[in-house]
Amino acid sequence: MNAPVSASPRFDIRLASINPNHWYGVARSSEVTDQPMGVMIWKQAIALFRDSQGQIQALADRCPHRFVKLSRGCVVEGELECAYHGWRINAQGQCSAVPYLEANQKLPNTRVRRYPVKEQDGFVWVFPGDTSLAEKIPPLALPEWDHLNYIATVSVIDANAHFSYLIENLMDMYHGHLHHDLQAWASAELDTIEETASRIDAHYSAQSYYRIDKIWSVAQLFIPQLRQLHPEPLDVSYVYPHWVSRLGDDFKIYCLFCPVDETHTRAYLVHFTSLNAFPNLHKLSPKLRLFLKNRLFGSAQKLLDGLVLQDVPMIEDEQQAYVENPDRRPYELNRALISVQRLIQSQAQI
Question: Are residues 193 and 311 in the same domain?
Fold first, then answer.
């Protein structure tokens, strides 16, 4: 008699792991100073620090001696010094000094894992997967970061929820109802979806509240009465593992994901306002334009932080509902979210 064939377990998107063979944005460059900084990518604790040449290094955040966090220590002569016993770990992950080493003892032949790390477009990127693939897969580019025609604002998302809830929130343009006076768009309609093995592009039609076409237009970010609805294309993309959005020609937003574990997600939301509509500004000297760019940095902070404060409780409610009853499934009507879930599953299974 043949043994019964058991059904394959259903893939649970809310427990899906990340594909580690991508670059993840873990910090802003300005956050990594002369002291170590601890970050976490999908259960991997990593210590960031700058060596004696000012280059950022990334090591597993565990001293090989007693396995305490290296990020609790300090940087001495470009090396990590453990806070507990003073062992020093160099940029290659090797133990370079032990304060109490006796004359007849050798330095421990131990090595801490070293992660590929890059500084690009104002952020620190870490590759937590197969190091041999790091140079074959580029980090997501943010060309607007250094471009003189774009004004940046950065907000941090810290949600007690699986990363799938955050990306679904970002790809779902039907939830503008939540944001009230902070809403940047209205009347979104999903037109088309494009899918590949590594990205989802969802194209919506929408009404935008903002138009940056006059020198005083930036005031719309602060004075709601100045906003007037007008049609604009609204494009959102899941460029695994990150998110990119464009509202007309005036606004570009990125979300740089750094999933911590199954119930915790951190991310950087990076908003750019375009000044391309002002040709007279382009005639100014690059030095003066850079001054204006830096001076206006964070001009959309209230808007961006407000959106995050409204979205995060929704995402965390979804996570809590899943924890209470993981077999209950929501009734989803947005086709883009089904595509997103397919991409998460395929990347988790690579």
Answer: yes
**Residue 330's pLDDT is what?**
85
Instruction: Assess contact for 267 and 256: CB atoms under 8 A.
Output: yes
Same domain, 172 and 128: no
Residue 128 lies in domain: 23-136
pLDDT per position as a tens digit, 262-305: 999 999 999 998 888 777 888 889 999 999 999 999 988 998 99
One domain, residues 184 and 311:
yes
How does residue 240 score in pLDDT terms, banded at 50, 70 and 90? very high
State pTM to two decimals. Answer: 0.91
What's the CATH number where 113 sits? 2.102.10.10
